[in-house]
Design a protein that fits this description.
This protein has two helices and twelve strands. The chain is mainly beta. It has two domains: 52 residues, no CATH class; 125 residues, Immunoglobulins (Immunoglobulin-like), CATH 2.60.40. The protein starts with a helix and ends with a strand.
């Protein structure tokens, strides 16, 4: 009898703890001007379940970019002192938008003001440029990469970027959106 009574009181105590320990945490995460609301229920068992509810739609991806035929990061091998030309297929996914196109190193070039802020930089000696700087329809562009004869051997991360500003119904001002396709340059 004593065991059943203790067991019943134990169950009541567990229910009371569960009811008191349910905690709802609401956090507003603002990323790129968009708000995402997150709620989290923490149970007495210390497990957490997160539910993310977007109350505003995410803007669509504006561009598609394929470097050297790859949507995933491509690796371009380049000998010191040589130039390579690579095909870049780029186009808007949304009719009527025009985007700016650029190519750049993921890390700053050593000796530039940006390199003083970030601890890792790449040596100067790779020149990369793309044949056009705007895109309004799907087209092939030429990415030209040159490695100086004195460029140290190594792997260097670069990216092709297409971006634009667009109006969205839930935002008062236009938002900046874009896509990046990363690729690596292997200098030998």
């Amino acid at each position: 009898m004593y065991t059943q009574k203790a067991k019943g009181e134990n169950e009541k105590l567990k229910m009371n703890i569960n009811n008191k320990q349910k905690i709802v945490i609401a956090a507003v995460l603002i990323m790129g001007g968009l708000a995402t609301f997150m709620t989290m229920n923490v149970m007495s068992t210390q497990s957490a379940v997160a539910q993310v509810a977007d109350h505003r739609p995410t803007p669509p991806e504006p561009f598609s970019i394929a470097v050297n035929g790859h949507n995933e990061p491509a690796i371009v091998t380049l000998k010191r002192g040589q130039t390579e030309q690579i095909d870049v297929l780029i186009g808007p996914k949304i009719a009527g938008i025009i985007g700016n196109v650029s190519v750049q190193s993921v890390r700053p070039i050593c000796g530039t003001p940006e390199a003083n802020v970030i601890s890792k930089c790449i040596p100067s000696g790779i020149t990369a440029f793309i044949s056009e700087n705007t895109v309004s329809a799907t087209k092939h562009m030429v990415l030209t990469i040159t490695a100086d004869p004195n460029m140290p051997s190594g792997f260097y991360a670069y990216e092709v970027t297409a971006d634009t500003t667009m109006n969205v119904p839930y935002q008062d001002t236009p938002i900046h959106v874009g896509n990046i396709s990363a690729f690596g340059i292997q200098v030998t």
